[in-house]
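Notes from the 1:1 (GR / supervisor)

We went over the backlog. Supervisor wanted to see one worked example end to end before approving the batch request, so GR pasted a single chain during the call. The sequence is below; no edits were made to it. Supervisor asked that the structure be written out right there so they could see what the output format looks like.
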Amino acid sequence: MDTKDVLRRERAALCDTLERLGPEAPTLCEGWTTADLAAHLVVRERDPRSGPGILFGGVFGRYTEKLMARQKAKGYPALLARLRSGPPGYMVATMAGVNVNENWIHHEDARRANGEGPRPPDPDIDAVLMKVVARMGPLQTRALKPYGVALGFPDGSRLTLRDASPGVVLRGPIGECVLYLSGRRTAAQVDLEGDADAVARLRSARLGI
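Structure output shown during the call:
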């Protein structure tokens, strides 16, 4: 399946979940409800002014929160309608894989904070997540230097993100590894193996972009 089609399918599933849970349900994003999550996705895609706040927080983050509040003020149905219309064309054309990753993670933010477990494997989504983590994983795990980091999957395959020794192996399905590397440690169903110091660093280091 084309990555753009995967994005459209995952976006529709995310919107269905947000509609089912309603605007006040908790999420894995600390302090955010499902309405906050929906507003974040809208401003991320539709308002370039949100970028510095999403990346750096601080004073920029406070401005991004104002942008989110303006979107929330339009009402939850309007937020979901905007999300269902899909990302802007340029984001679909140039960032489809990254947006699959973003939508999938936030979908799990909503699902798992409300007692729902992992979804069944989806080969199309898994293939996109694999490509994205292969590209972004070294940056997400930069705080683990000088230790090596690899992902070990249920089929026995392996993806090395940092080739160094000693190191740690993060074992689990690709989606669970993606959740862990995005900072959702407690929600991700993974196992850590390897050098004790490397494991300890992975458990405590700041992960993500």
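Supervisor's comment: The radius of gyration is 17 Å.
Batch request approved.
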